[in-house]
Design a protein that fits this description.
Distance between the termini: 67 Å
Shape: rod-shaped
Structural class: alpha+beta
Strand order of the largest sheet: 1-2-3-4
Oligomer: single chain
Order of helices and strands: HEEHEEHH
Length: 182
C-alpha cells in the first residue's frame, strides 16, 4: 500500500518537474543579466497561466519592461499574464502586450497542455483506485475463506476417538508354531 502511495506521489511530482526546470533555467538567465534576489511562481487558474517574477537590481536605470523582455525571451512555458516586480515596482502584462512590445519569443513556447496533464493525473488516480479495490477484494476473500475453514471461536475441535495403540511386530524368520498370546 505504501508503494502505491509513493507511485502516486511520484506521478504527481513528475508532472510539475518540467515547469520547475524551466524556472531554474530562467533564474540563471536573469542572474546572468544582472538581476538578484530572484523569485518566480507559475500558477494556473482554470485556463489562464499566470507567471510572477520578482527581482532586484543594483542598476536603478533598469525597468520592469526590460525584466519582462528577458522573461518573455527565456521562459518557454505558456504565459497568459506576466507580473513582474523590480525593486518594489510592479507591472502586469498580457501575452498580447508582450507580443506587441517584444515580437516573437526567442525560445520555442511549450504547448499549453494543462488539459493533458489533468487527464494524465486522472488516469493514474483511476488506475490506483482500481488496484486498491482489487487488493482489498482479494484480502476480503482470503479472510472469508479462512474463517469458513477453521472452527468458530468458543467451539472446541472434535477429539479423535481414543483407541489403544497397536504395535505390529513383523519378524523376518518367525519361530515355528502359533504366535504367543498376550
Amino acid at each position: 500500500m505504501r508503494r502505491l502511495g509513493l507511485l502516486l506521489l511520484l506521478c504527481l511530482a513528475l508532472t510539475g518537474c518540467d515547469m520547475l526546470n524551466d524556472q531554474t533555467t530562467l533564474h540563471f538567465r536573469l542572474a546572468e543579466a544582472g538581476y538578484t534576489t530572484l523569485s518566480s511562481y507559475h500558477s494556473i487558474s482554470g485556463e489562464i497561466d499566470h507567471f510572477e517574477v520578482t527581482a532586484s537590481s543594483a542598476d536603478r536605470t533598469r525597468t520592469t519592461e526590460q525584466l519582462a523582455e528577458v522573461v518573455w525571451d527565456a521562459y518557454p512555458q505558456h504565459v497568459d499574464h506576466l507580473s513582474v516586480t523590480l525593486n518594489g515596482t510592479s507591472e502586469v502584462y498580457s501575452a498580447e502586450q508582450l507580443q506587441q512590445a517584444f515580437g516573437d519569443r526567442q525560445v520555442t513556447e511549450k504547448p499549453d497542455d494543462d488539459a493533458e496533464v489533468n487527464r494524465t493525473i486522472m488516469t493514474w488516480l483511476t488506475v490506483a483506485a482500481v488496484v486498491v479495490l482489487l487488493v482489498l477484494s482479494g484480502w476480503l476473500v482470503l479472510v472469508g475463506l479462512r474463517s469458513h475453514g477453521s472452527p468458530r471461536r468458543g467451539q472446541q475441535p472434535p477429539t479423535p476417538q481414543q483407541t489403544p495403540p497397536r504395535h505390529n511386530v513383523y519378524l523376518v524368520n518367525p519361530p515355528p508354531g502359533p504366535p504367543p498370546t498376550a
